[in-house]
Amino acid sequence: MDELRRSILKVIGVLGLSAGFPLLRTFASENVVPNEPVSTPSSKQLGLVLDIDKCLSSAVRDACISACRREHNLPEITANPERKYKWIWTEDFGNAFPDHAHEHFSETLKKQPVLVLCNHCSSPACTKVCPVSATWKRKEDGIVMMDMHRCIGCRYCMAACPYRARSFNWLYPRPDIKGADNPVYPTRTKGVVEKCTFCVERIRLGREPACVEASKKVPGGAGALTFGNLSDPDSEVSRILREKRTICRQLGFGTRPNVYYIV
Amino acid sequence: MTPKDQDKMADHLISPITKTGRSYIVLLFALGMVVTWGFMAWVYQVYTGLGVTGMNNNVNWGVYITNFVFFIGISHAGTLISAILRVSGAEWRRPITRVAEAITVFALILGGLQIFIDLGRPDRVFNLLLYGRLGSPLLWDVNCVSIYLFSSIFYLFLPLIPDLGILRENSNITGWRKDMYRVLAVGWDGNPEQKRRLEKAIGIMAIAIIPIAVSVHTVVSWIFGMTPRPMWHTAILGPYFVVGAIFSGIAALIIAMAILRKIYNFEAYLKPIHFNYLGMLLLTMAALWFYFTFAEFLTTGYVGLTEEWEVFRSKMTGQFSLLFWFMIVSMAIAFFLLALARERWPIGSTCIASVLIIVGMWIERYSIIVPTLTKYDEHGHAAYIYAPTWVELSITLASLAGFILLYVVFAKLFPLISIWEIEEGEEALKTKLEDMKSYLPDKVS
Amino acid sequence: MNDKKMIILGLVIFLITVTYPFWYTLLAGAKVSRPVLEKPAGETRCIEEKAFMTANHMQLLNVWRDAVVRNDIAEYTSTAYGAKYEMSLTKTCLKCHNKREEFCNRCHGYVNVNPACWNCHNEQKGIN
């Protein structure tokens, strides 16, 4: 009887250990609580409002995209366009808003360029699935943040994001960085995922994201991108959302994006 | 069986261990070369980055994840045969259990390896343990597959113990190998008390491992199911993957049995009737698989939700239709082979069907992962279709070779057919007859 | 008993080989020297004392990394001097220690460590 009990205990021990260690570590680690992936009601949710008409101007779009590229040392990928670094980029209206581009939308309208970026969703699909909390939704301002030091490169977040807003470092990025030289912001290494972080490093200094700032400097770009606190009823973004007709990308996914488009 | 017959049987089943032919060495070398080539391809991948594969920011999962799901699926062979048939008292399982259990362990190891190969930063793999987030299906997967791996190793080892005792006593085995078997046999001497305890332990493991196996492939399916991607986010994915796993597992088992039967002259043990019965199980799983596939595609296609429709169309009539329909046709041919030719031609029909099914199931995994991730334009056409590179193909081939290599090494160390279980089956003939008599009505007085 | 001689011989060879770093250094004596670091010009002190930084700068950087990236805390108060600094390798440390070859790499090369930081983080003058 002792032998049987011993072997049962051994079985339970082995099973328990193999399951328990990750469990134990997770509960013991302080990273369980602070990195809540699904939004909790927070006092601040940063968001962006884009004016589709104003962004039709290629000057505005190019200014935004190159400002982001310069700020974050984004590599230029010409060899394989499917591996372009997409922090903020352009999509056709039909691709950005497939649930709005119905059959009788004209081809011209469907091909109109729209600036798209990470939506910093309130219920992000990506943060739910990251196995190591390398991406999470910040409580203080609702930004969906990336920790490139933690990322193991499993690309689950990329598989989960229905907006395809994330990019992976397929090769060592530095040789492809041309004309973008911001030494204060680190380049990344191969094997990690990256995406727009609403210029967290600039927000900390009280500035606006690089794309927003750049769009304001372009003639006719004022009001193309508006950035602010969606939870503050007196902010500019809240005012626009109250007064203008706005849409989001693919609300059907249930991710509750925080990037809005004035139509 | 007389003790003399028993000894002859034992000697025959041990002969792969005691006799090493030249073809074995050649096979070992060949497999080793393929594995080494794949390993070098992987080193190149780690050095240069995952950019050496065909993946990109849209199709960011490709052949490696397909292989992962495929191998974990194959691993359900052992559980079904060994555990379910043991629990249900199916006597015909006896010569098959060891082959099946070995497939499970090695398939799990290779499957887990695919994830490691797919990581962008494999040096940070321990982050999964240090900072693992329980909310992530990938972590559920790490947990479930680990539990399943350890349980399977244990479940392979337990019924191996009496055979290890036989090996320890065998006169042809001397030197360090005898010592090895002595240690591994953990003091087995076959007395009734030990037998009782072993049966109990195996019985407990057999029952415990069934829900574990079901949980494993359900959790693997939830890696896809818990994302909002079109044709991934469907409730049927859990049961679908489990059915597919058992389906491909039995197919793999049949192929393994057929090959081993030929190489080691096991015709007396792996008989047409075993293939016939396994073929019946395979036919059942095929019917189930067709049912689930039909249900999923009918539901998706009948309603045609926006994002789902373009994925559905790409599989049915678009750029992935060749792959998709090839899979359906393969499975259909397999189905009819099994239904019509199984009785009269058990080994041949089940083997051909199994090969068709294995290839079909790999394509099925691929066609679940890649079409959903592909980016289509407004007309449902994809400008760029994912194509694996030589690195991915080398590593895939090397994984297959690695699986066979592990198996071949296992065959050199342990008997592939459970000697004691067959002897036990012979002894059980009498009690089985009594059991069957008890099913019939009692005498009316 | 032949084995005894071989065993003792093997042991002696092993001991000599394994203690090589120690006796070689002792014998070579003055020829081996600690690395000389070129300190930044015009600065009198680091954010903490030299002994602390030498022993703990790796740990400090890890703490800074998690604080800035994961917890959005960017201000560091020096325990030795009470002064406030921004927690940033590039902006704070490398502002003064801007010659990686002459400062950082000398010690790192001497003790043969390869910190992975330089794959991403840059010195102020540009991306290498």
Task: Outline the structure in words.
The complex is a heterotrimer of chains A (263), B (445) and C (128). Chain A has helices at residues 2-28, 58-72, 93-96, 107-110, 125-129, 156-160, 200-203, 210-217, 236-243; strands at 46-51, 88-92, 113-117, 135-137, 144-146, 167-168, 193-194, 225-229, 246-247, 259-262. Chain A is built from 9 helices and 10 strands. Chain A is globular, with a radius of gyration of 22 Å. The longest helix of chain A has 27 residues, at 2-28. Chain A has a single domain, classed as Alpha-Beta Plaits (2-Layer Sandwich), CATH 3.30.70. Chain A is an alpha+beta fold. Chain A is 30% helix and 14% strand. Chain B has helices at residues 3-18, 22-48, 63-74, 76-87, 97-118, 127-130, 137-157, 161-169, 176-184, 192-225, 237-264, 272-303, 306-316, 321-341, 346-373, 390-413, 419-439. Helices cover 50% and strands 5% of the residues of chain C. The model of chain C has no long low-confidence stretch (mean pLDDT 86). With 128 residues, chain C is mainly alpha-helical. Chain C folds into 2 domains: 1-33; 34-128, no CATH class. Chain C has helices at residues 2-18, 20-28, 50-71, 89-96, 104-111, and strands spanning 75-77, 84-86. Chain C is elongated and about 70 Å long. Classes of the chains: A alpha+beta (263), B mainly alpha (445), C mainly alpha (128). Chains A and B meet through helix 1, helix 5, helix 6 and strand 6 of A and helix 6, helix 7 and helix 10 of B.
